[in-house]
Amino acid sequence: MRLGLVIDLDTCVGCHACAVACKQWNTSGTTGPLTDESPYGAAPSGVWFNRVRHYEVGDYPHTKTVNMPLSCMHCDDAACVTVCPTGASYKRGEDGIVLVDQDKCMGCSLCAWACPYGARELDPRDGVMKKCTLCIDRIYDDALAPEDRQPACVITCPAHARHFGDFDDPDSAVSRLSRERGGRKLMPELGYEPTNTYLPPRSAPAVPTADVRRGSLMSSVKDWVNKAIAR
Amino acid sequence: MTALPAFEDHDRQQTRYTTCYMCACRCGIKVTVENNQVRFIQGNRNHPVNKGVLCAKGNAGIMKQQSPARLRYPMRRKPGSERGSGEFEPISWDEALDQLTERLARIRATDPKKLAFFTGRDQMQALTGLWAAQFGTINWAAHGGFCSVNMAAAGLYTMGHAFWEFGDPDWERTKYFMLWGVAEDHASNPIKAGIDTLKRRGAKFVSINPVRTGYQAVADEWVPIRPGTDGLLALSMVHVLLRHDRFDWDYLVRYTNAPWLVVDTPGQKGHGLILRDRDGNPLAWDLELGDMVDASLPEILPALFGDYTAPDGRPVRTVMSLLAERYLDDAYAPENIAPRCGVPAEQIERLALEMAHVAFREAIEIECEWTDAYGRTHDRFVGRPVSMHAMRGISAHSNGFQTCRAIHLLQILLGTIDVPGGHLSKPPYPRHIPPGIKPARDMAPNTPLKSPPLGFPTGPEDLVIDAGGNPLRLDKAYSWDAPLANHGLMHMVITNAVKGDPYPIDTLMLYMANMSWNSTMNTAQVMGMLREKGEDGEYRIPFLVVSDAFHAEIVNFADLVLPDTTYLERHDTISMLDRPISEPHAAADSIRQPVLEPDRDVRPWQEVLVELAGRLGFPAFTTGDGARRYASYQDFIVNFQKEPGIGFLAGWRGAQGQNSLRGDPNPNQWQEYADHQCFFVHHLEDSQKYYRFCNRDYLELARHAGWVGSTDPIVLELYSETQQRFKLAGQGLYDGPMPKRPEHKARLVNHFDPLPIWYAPLEQGRVDLEAYPFHAITQRPMFMYHSWDSQNAWLRQICAQNFLYMNRGRATSMGIADQSWVWVESHHGRIRVQVKLMEGVEPDTVWTWNALGKQSGAWGLARDADESRKGFLLNHLISELLPQRGDGLDNVTNSDPITGQAAWYDLRVRITPAKPGEVGAWPQFEPVRPLPGMPDSPDQVRYQTHRRVNLRRSLWDVLTRGKGRA
Amino acid sequence: MHPALSVILFTVLSGAGYGLFSLVTLLHLTGLYPAPGPTELMTQLGLALALITFGLFSSTLHLHNPKNAWRAVMRVRTSWLSREAVCALSFYPFALIYLWQIPRAGVEVGPLMVVVGGMALFLALLTVFTTGMIYASLKTIRQWNTALTPANYLLLGLALGATALAAVHAGFGGRSEGLVLLALGLVLLAGVMKGLYYLWIREVTGPSLNTATGFTQARVRLLDQGHTAGTFLTREFGFDPGARRIFRVRLGVFGFGFLLPLLLMGMVLAGGSSLWLALALVSALAGIGLERWLFFAEARHGVMLYHGQRT
Fold it and tell me: Do strands B88-90 and B75-77 pair parallel, antiparallel, or not at all (unpaired)?
C-alpha cells in the first residue's frame, strides 16, 4: 500500500479546517501533545502538522488566489528518513507512512532540514520532531466506523477537497482523481517522489451566449407584444 | 506488518452529540469525552447542516473550553469605583439576581421602556424577544441591525424568504452560481460544501467581490467590483436581459405581481399604488376579456405589458411596463455603468447573457405530480438552474436593501426562485410578503406588549413613532430615520441612551454583545460614553448588565456581570420559531445538551432569563396565582406553547412523541432529541419541494406547522407597494402619517422606491471623495468569524494580527511598501496600521480582517499580545452618525435609510505612509485590568486527554530506513 | 538557515582538530615532521583531541533530546550524520592508542603506530568529509548541495590544522619553513576553494515558488503564510542576514580567514618572528568562524519558498 492524500486546489477555499482538525486530533494522538508556546501572549506559536498557505498566481486583474494546505507528503524516497541518524524517522513498509518514533528521536532537526515541504516541526518542550502520522491512530482503529477511519483533516474538510487512499491501487479514489484531474507533485525536481498529490484548478466552464443574443434589441416597452399566458 | 497498539482506550471515552456554537452555522457535532475533557469534536455525518464536516472554528472548540478568559462567577463593580476602571468583586448568584430583580421590577412597574435589552451573537431571539415582550419594553433587538438585516428585509419584502438562513442555492442542480459580496461570512460549511458540489458537476461559479480570498479564490470568474456599486451591476444585467428579451414570461405572469396594474398619476395621492377592486384584490388586464380582472385569480390571461384606464378614469400601467421602461433606460446600459462599477461593459453583458443561456437553454425538468395553490395539477417542475447567494458586501452598505432587491429582481426575471436549480427557500420560509407581524408600539407598566417588539411595517401607519412623529424606540427603529428596521439598530443604543435622544434609560442589558469594542462603530468615543455622567453625577446609562461567557472588552464596563456557560455546558434550542437549521427540502431544528459539567459558578443565560421571568411574574411564565410556571429552561422549552401544539421544538411532540411539527407538549422531548443526535428533521414530499409559494401541499403543511397563517399563494413582489407608501409619505401624498422634517421627506423620496434603485452609499455624498479616495471594508476570516470570543489559542496562531490589504500596483505607486505602517484617516478619525500588498483586490479598495484587534488585557491575553499591539479595528474610523455637514442629517444614523442596517462598508479613507519610527497599531488604550480570581493565562499549553501510545518497532526496522514499499 | 553557535563551534573546532591530528600523524608517520620531540608531538595531538572533543561536545548542545544521542550510530546505512558519529567515535581508540604509544615508543614509528596512526588519520579525514556530506547531501539547500561543501570542509580543516601545527611547533621554539609553507599552501588552497564556492552559489538553481506550488505558467506570490507569528520552520530556516551583511562578513572571511594569515606566514617566511604564527592561527579561527556562520546564514532552505522567499 502507498497511503496518501489528494488535495483539490479547485475547491480548497483556505478555511484552515484541516489544519485545526489535525491539531485537535493529534494533540491527544500518538505523537501528542502538540505544544503551544505563548498561547495567550505575543507571537503565539505551536506545533502543527498541517498548515494552510495562500498564494496569488498572476497579476491583477488576472490573478487567482490559491489556497495550499501543506503537510507531510509521505515521499516514496523520503530524504527525512534517509538522513535520520537514530532510526527514529522511518517509513513503514506496509503502507508507506513516514513516522517519527518519539522514543528514539534525539532532536537534531536534520530531518526537517532535509524536508522541502516544511512537514516536520520540532516540539520545543519534548525536544523531538513531530509530523503528520496520516492519523495512523484513526485509520487502523477498528473501533471507529469505517467512514471515520480516515485522517482527521479529510473527514472535516468542508469543501471535500481532501481525499485519502492507496495510490498503489489504480482503482482507488485517490489514484482515479489524480489520473483524471492531472494531479501534480510539488517540487518534483528534487526526486523525493512525494505521495500526496495536488489537483490543479479546473478550467472555467464555457457558457455560450450566442443563442440568447438578439439581433434587434428591445429599445422601448412598446416593442413587446403581449402573449396569452394563463395565470 | 507489525501489530499496532490500541491507541485509544474507547472504554474510557464517551460520545455525545450536540450543536456547535463557534459561529452561527449551527453544525451538528459529535463530541468524544475522556477523563472529563474533550478528546475530539467532529462533524455529525447525519446532520442536515454540515453532513459530517466541520470548519476550523468547530475544530478548535477544545481551546474555547480551555480559555483562561472564561468568567468564573457573578461580579459587580466595586462600590465606589468608577465604571470602566475594571474593579470588580465577586458576588453570589442569589445576590446578583436579587439586585437585578429589584431593579427590573421597579422599572417594569413604572416605565418599562427604561429597560433596553440587546443581544449579540446569540441564537435565541425567540426567547429573548418573548422575554422583552413579557417585560413590556419595546427596546429589544438582537444584532441583526448591524449584521445583515438588509438581506433579510429585502428578501422578505420581495420573495418571502431570503439568502442564507431563509434560503439556499439548489447546490445539487444549479449550473450557474453567482456569489455577491460574501466577505467569507455566512454561511460557512454549507457554502463550502455547495461550491464543491456544483464545481464537481462542471457548473460555473462567478464571484462578485472586490477581494479575491476565500470562496472567491475558487471562483471560475472573479469580478472585482467597487464596493457599493453591486446594485448598479445587477440592474445593468436586468437592462441586458430586457434588451435581449430574455426573461421568464410565464413565471412572471403566474407567480409575481408583474402583471398587476399600477396607478399612474404622478403628483397625486394614490400614485404608484396597486389598482385594487373593492375587496382589495389587485387588478390585472385580461387579454381575452379585454377588461380588468382580479389578478389573484387563476386561469386569467393577464397582460404583462400595457397602459390602461381604470374604471374611475385613472391611467394605469402594468408593473412590467414600469419595470421595463425604467431599466431599458440608457442610464443602466453596461457602457454607462461600467466606469462606476469598475466592471467592463462587455463583461456585464456577457454575464447577463450567460445566465440567460443557462436559465432558458439549459432548463431542467423534474417529472413529479404536484398541485398548485389553486388546485391545478402539474406533471413536472420546470427549473432554471441559475442561483445566487449574497451577504455582507451587499448588506453593509446604506444602499444594501435596494441592492439586495435588485439582485432578487434579477433572480425573479430569470424565473429562478424556488425552482429546481435555482434559489430555494428553507422552511419555515417562504412566508407571505411581508410576514404579518407588526412591531409593538404601546407600552404600559407591568403589562406585556401586545405584539413582538420587531415586525414588518407595510406603511407609515405601522411606524413606532408618537403623534409628533418622534421615535418611540431607543434605537429609533421604525421611525422616519429607519422605517423598515426589522432587526432594530443595536449600533445606536449606547449613543442614543447617553444623549437621552429620544429619552434616557435606566438599565441596559447586553448579552454576548461586545458593544465597547468590535461590535460598535466609533469605538473610542463609545467607551467614553459608557463612562459619561450627567450633571447629577449619575452615569448617563445608570446600570449596565453584561452576560457573557468570556472576559470581553464590554465586561470591563459592566455594573453587574452574569457569567454564561460555554456551548459545551448548556441546553439550547435552535428553534423553528427563531432561526432553525432547515434545509431547502427539510424542516429541521436542533438542541444543545451539556457534554461537560461547568467547573465554574456560571449559569446559562437562558436559564437566568427563565428565572428572572418567574421572579418578575411575567404572565407567560407564571400560573394564574402568580406562581412560577416553569422550573427551568428545559421545562419552559417543553411546555411553552406559542399557539396550541406549537412550541420551541418541532420534533417528538405529543404525549408519546408521536407528532411532528405540531402536537401537545412531550415531557420526554429533550431525551428524544438526545437520543436522535440532537436534531429533528421533517423531510418534504417530492411534490412539496418546489414552487412552494404556490404549492398547495406545501402551503397546507406550512399552515399546519404554524409557519404561515394561510394557504393563500405567496405572490413575489417585483413591485413593492410598501415602498411606494413611504415614498408617497415623503412626497406629502399619503393618507396617513407623514414626516414633517425636510430631511426625512427627502430620505423617503430619494431612497424608497417600489422598484429597485441604486443610489451612492450615503457617506459618499457627505465626504470629499478626492480627499478620501479609498473604500475600506472588512472581511471575516473563515477561521474566526463569530468565534472571536475567547481568542482561541489555536485559531490565534493562524492570525493574531490583522493587516490592511492594498492592491500592490496602487500602493507601490503611492510609495507604500509591503509590511510598512501607514496612517488611515476617515472623516471621523485616524488609525495607524500595518500594510500588506496583494494582487487580488480592486485598486480603489482596502480591506482587513474584522474584529482581530483587541484591547490590551482583555480575553485572557497578555498585555503585549499581537492583537492589541499590532492588530487594529477599523471601527474607530466609522461614525455611528452620518458625516457631519451642519444639516438636519447630522444626528441621523450611519445606516441604510430604509432598514437601519449599519453601513459599515460605506467607509471612505485616505492612506499616507507613517513616518520612520512610527510603528505599532494606534490608538492604544489603557490595558483592561485582570478580573479578581481569574487564573493567569498559561505560558504554554500541552493539551492531551491521555498519554500518547507509541508504535512498537523491531531493531531491524530501526537500523534500516524502513523498507519503503512492501 | 539559522546559524547555531553550537554547530559553528563544533564544525570549526573539530575540523581544526581533525586537520591538526591528521597532519601531525601524517608528518610523523612519514618522518617528515621536523625534529619531533615526544612532548611536542603529544601537545600537538593533545590539542587536536581537545579541539575535537570540545567540538563534539558542543555539537550535542544543539540536540533537543540529547539523552537519545547515543542512538545516532544506528543508521550508518543511509545517514551521513550517523556515519559522522560512527567515524568520530571510531577515531578515538586509534587516536588514543597512538597518543599512548608516543611516550612509550618515543618518536620512533613502529608497526603498531603505523596501523593505528594510519587508521586515525583515515578516520579523522573521513569524519570531516562526513560532516561536509551531512550538508552536501541536502537537496533542500542549494548552497550546500555540492561537492564543494565536503571539499571546503576538508580543506578548511586542514588549513586550520596546518596553521595550528606551525604555530604550536613555533611555540616549542621550532622554526620550520616547511611547516609554514604547508600551512601557507593549505590556507591558500582553502581560500581559493572558498572563493570558487562563493562564485558557484551565485547561480540560482533548484526549486522555485512555481515548482513548489505547481503553478508554472505565471508569477506566484505569497499572500499569507498561514500564521502571523514565527514557527519552528521560520526560526530554523527563516534567517536572512541581508545582502549587505553577507558582503561584509565575506570580507571578514577572506580578511581574517585567509589574507591576514597568509600575510603573517609570509612575514615569518621572510624572517619575522615565529610568534606571528599564533596570531595567524587566531585570525584564521576567527575568519573560519565567520565563514561557518555565513555557511549557514546565507543558505536558503527550499521550504522558505513556501513562506514567500524568492530564492
Answer: antiparallel
Q: Residue B202 is nearest to which of A205, A217, A224, comparing CB atoms?
A: A205
Q: Write the CA distances from B14 to A20, B54, B677, B945, integer angstroms.
A: 22, 20, 14, 12
pLDDT in tens, B505-538: 999 999 999 999 999 999 999 999 999 999 999 9
Cβ pair B158, B405 in contact under 8 A: yes
Q: Nearest CA to CA, how far is B838 from chain C (Å)?
A: 6
CA distance C22 to C39: 17
Which cell goes with B197? 458540489
What CATH number is given for A3-203 in this structure? 3.30.70.20
Give dist(CA B806, CA B910) in Å, integer: 12
Amino acid identity for residue B904 in this structure: W
CA–CA separation, A157 and A21 (whole Å): 9
SS3 B807: strand
Across the interface, whether the CB atoms of C229 and A124 are under 8 A apart is answered: no
User: Where in the sequence is the domain holding C193, given as residue range(s)?
Assistant: 5-306
Average pLDDT on B79-83 reads 96
Residue A216 CB partners (closer than 8 Å, separation 6+): none
Which of A109, A187, A189, A203 has the highest number of chain C CBs within 10 A, making it the mutation to test binding with C? Answer: A187
ipTM: 0.97
Domain range list for chain A: 3-203
Task: Tell me the Cα Rg of chain A.
Answer: 24
The counts of H helices and E strands in chain C are 13, 1
Mind listing the domains of chain B with CATH numbers? 722-754 (no CATH), 762-913 (2.40.40.20)
Q: How many CB atoms lie within 10 A of CB B947?
A: 9
Strand B560-563 versus strand B75-77 pairing type: antiparallel
Contact C214, A184 (CB under 8 A): yes
> Mapping DSSP to helix (H, G, I), strand (E, B) and coil, where does residue C219 land?
coil
Task: Kindly report whether the peptide bond that precedes residue C150 is cis, defined as omega within 30 degrees of 0.
Answer: no
Please report the pLDDT score of residue B511 as a whole number.
96
Other C-beta atoms closer than 10 Å to the C-beta of B620 total: 16
Pair B801, B784: CB distance under 8 Å: no
d(CA B692, CA B698): 6
The answer to whether the CB atoms of B328 and A205 lie below 8 A apart is no
Q: Please, are residues A169 and A175 in contact by the beta-carbon 8 Å criterion?
A: yes
Separation of alpha carbons B250 and B255, rounded Å: 8
Q: What stretch of H or E contains B135? A: helix B125-135
Which residues lie below 8 Å from residue C173, measured CB to CB, with a gap of 6+? Answer: none
Task: Give, as one character, the DSSP assignment of residue B895.
Answer: B
- The pLDDT, as a whole number, for residue B965 is 42
Scanning A164-203 for CB atoms below 8 A from C yields 184-192, 198, 200
Instruction: Measure the CA–CA gap between C307 and B167, rounded to whole angstroms.
Output: 40
Is C221 close to B839, i.e. CB distance below 8 A? yes
Residue count of chain A = 231
Q: Check B938 against A90: CB less than 8 A apart.
A: no
Q: First vs last Cα of chain A: how many Å apart?
A: 63
**What region, left, alpha or beta, does residue B263 occupy, with left being phi > 0 and alpha being psi -120 to 50 degrees?**
beta
Q: How many domains does chain C have?
A: 1
Tell me the residue ranges of DSSP E strands in C128-284. 220-224
B180 half-sphere exposure, CB direction, 13 A CA radius? 29
Pairwise CB contact (< 8 Å): B188 & A158: yes
Cβ(B20)–Cβ(B29) under 8 Å? yes
The pLDDT-based confidence of B964 (bands split at 50, 70, 90) is very low
Query: Strand order in B28-34's β-sheet?
Result: B13-19, B28-34, B37-43
Distance CA B462, CA C258 (A): 92
User: Quick one: DSSP state of residue B951?
Assistant: P
